[in-house]
Amino acid sequence: MPGLTDPDFSHTVTYLCQHNEEGALGIIINRPANMNLGEVFKQMDITVTSSVASEKMVFAGGPVQQDRGFVLHTNYGNWDVSIKVSDTITLTTSRDIIEAIAVDTGPDDYLVALGYAGWGRGQIEEEILHNSWLNTPYCQSILFDSPINQRWQQAAKEIGIDINLLTLQAGHS
Fold it and tell me: Containing domain of residue 74, as a range?
């Protein structure tokens, strides 16, 4: 929401990957990490044959474990450490998917992020009650295809809202 001023989350779009009684985990999908995937390949000493993959942007996925990589991708492959998020999206944290992406044998649609956003038990629910977050349905084109600087507005538009017209004040009945 426009009123969320926390610098880690202001104007972010966070794809919620896991939500249960213990808390929630999400990946911010519209904040570049000022590096490309080629730099990750180099740091991990991975042989690269895909110039397209090397140029892909890496995202700052959130303030937790920023030294750890997360790959959101369409369901494809059998990777060492994956969580099925939905019928179409998987979150993978193992090296094997990065190696596959480097040689063009990974999923067609993917987003690589360093770090994640995490909430403890009941925390995200409380933040939603305080109008910090706007919930929208998943849209694959926003996740993988939309220009990064338009994802915040496009996510709100999925539920018919022009995010630029929202006020900072909210009412409760």
Answer: 14-158
